[in-house]
Specification:
Chain lengths: ~120, ~110
């Protein structure tokens, strides 16, 4: 059974960098049929896709965050990571890591397995 | 970016009712649409992918239909455990996008 587990600080100061890691167990991160994504949910709001990484290291990001976001993968540790630079209160959210299934016709993913979510508050 | 608009934003229905949630895309996305159920304090869970394919383990009272720009999630007979917020998501093109959500309550 695939499991994803986010880890990282729950409190980040404004202007600093938010860093989260997602450890994957029960399956290999090096699988062509899947990619690995980050999604966030501000308090009381809906889901926002942040970006995705393939095991090859290729990434795609949402345009509104692209200048501040970096997603990386460590296949030796079977984990992937998210960094968001220069955070503000607007980055306060629950951050989810998820596995994307891209095995279908479209080559892009819906998310079939999620971590439990990591709440991050941006505050001084 | 492709925008997804869900309707209604919230609804209240009785146990046993047939419930329908709509999702409209700002441009054609073929059948590259998924539906998720999110319960309070839990991560979202995929119900439907490719617009109409039921994910393994999901009760058969859930179904999806549509293609192009108009999609529907249907619950054939509402159960108390279906209280949740439902989201659609397109995976036709980057950036991937979600609808704003539909909150479903029991009357």
């Amino acid at each position: 059974q695939l499991q994803l587990q986010e880890s990282g600080p729950g409190l980040v100061k404004p202007s600093e960098t938010l860093s989260l890691t997602c450890a994957v167990s029960g399956g290999s991160i090096s699988n062509n049929n899947y990619d690995w994504g980050w999604i966030r949910q501000p308090p009381g709001k809906g889901l926002e896709w942040i970006g995705v990484i393939y095991y090859s290291g290729h990434t795609y990001y949402t345009p509104s965050l692209k200048s501040r976001v970096t997603i990386s993968v460590d296949t030796s540790k079977n984990q992937f990571s998210l960094k968001v630079a220069s955070v503000t209160a607007a980055d306060t959210a629950i951050y989810y890591c998820a596995r994307g299934d891209n095995s279908g016709l479209y080559g892009k993913s819906y998310f079939d397995s999620w971590g439990q979510g990591s709440p991050v508050i941006v505050s001084s | 970016a492709i925008q997804l608009t869900q309707s209604p934003s919230s609804l209240s229905a009785s146990v046993g009712d047939r419930v329908t949630i709509a999702c409209r895309a700002s441009q054609g996305i073929s059948s590259a649409l998924a539906w998720y159920q999110e319960k309070p304090g839990k991560a979202p869970n995929v119900l439907i992918y490719d617009a109409s394919s039921l994910k393994s383990g999901v009760p058969s009272r859930f179904s999806g239909s549509g293609s192009g720009t108009e999609f529907t999630l249907t619950i054939s007979s509402l159960q108390p455990e279906d209280v949740a917020t439902y989201y659609c998501q397109q995976f036709n093109s980057y950036p991937l996008t979600f609808g704003q959500g539909t909150r479903l309550e029991i009357k």
